[in-house]
Amino acid sequence: MSDNRSNETPARTGLERRGLLRGTSYGALALGTMAVAGAAVTSTPALALGNTATAVLNFALNLEYLEAEFYLRAIYGSGLADADTYGLGVQGGVTGGRAVSFDTPIVQQYAQEIAHDEQNHVRFIRSVLADKAVAEPAIDLTGSFNTLAQAAGLGDGFDPFASENDFLLGAFIFEDVGVTAYAGAAPLVNSKAVLAAAAGILAVEAYHASEIRLLLLQRGFTVEVQKISDLRAVLSGAADDQGILVDGVANIVPTDSNSLAFARTTRQVLNIVYGAPDAASGLFFPAGLNGAITT
Prior knowledge:
Blueprint: H1 8-30, E1 33-36, E2 39-42, H2 51-76, E3 94-95, H3 105-129, E4 139-140, H4 143-151, H5 164-185, H6 192-218, H7 222-236, E5 245-246, E6 249-250, H8 266-274
Parallel strand pairs: 3-4
Antiparallel strand pairs: 1-2, 5-6
Helix pairs in contact: 1-3, 2-3, 2-5, 3-6, 5-6, 5-8
């Protein structure tokens, strides 16, 4: 980070202070009591999550681990703390990732904000799941990006931590996937409290995705983005992806014909993060996900 390293701790502390304020509203679900449909619903551990809600939240937690590790390492050169990664299942390590030398201060600030949000998502979902939270699985931030870039026709040796522009392309590879995953999982959750929280996370992920898409459009990466979008659609097996240009016009918000966000099933999401249809592991998760939804 063009040797702003000495400023990393103060910057992160500032973000943590903001997170403390932001966390108080979300904490009502995770640590206190909230009113749902006129009834007082006590949260963790009295949320009494059913098997389906637990499975869906843990599925989301796996994806949040990936995003948090990517952004935190890009900003600070290190990822989640041990206290944020233990749980049920096999805990794996993270391969790759390092601090990016950002050229543009405002882009670095955007990345810091996203890193902070993803870290908070991990902590929030873990607090809701309590002792049902899965551990962080093995995550690959090196071979995964390189393999996907080759498959998309972007060449060999792609490294999302090599430069600011590479970072933005790397973020695009999975940023839209999180939005479609939350949208697709919504019908599976019958707890209003959990659904409300998931909707809040989906909205934040959509902000992140639009931010990345806008920056890439402004910088002229329309061809590269379209190749990545096309590959995701092929892996998903559906027409559920769009680049940042459609018919020559800016397309910052990808939607279906009803202007609704695309929704993917858990299997379609797995196809993308594993890099192959019907795979049980691969790419970003070389040993697979932890939890009930893994294949």
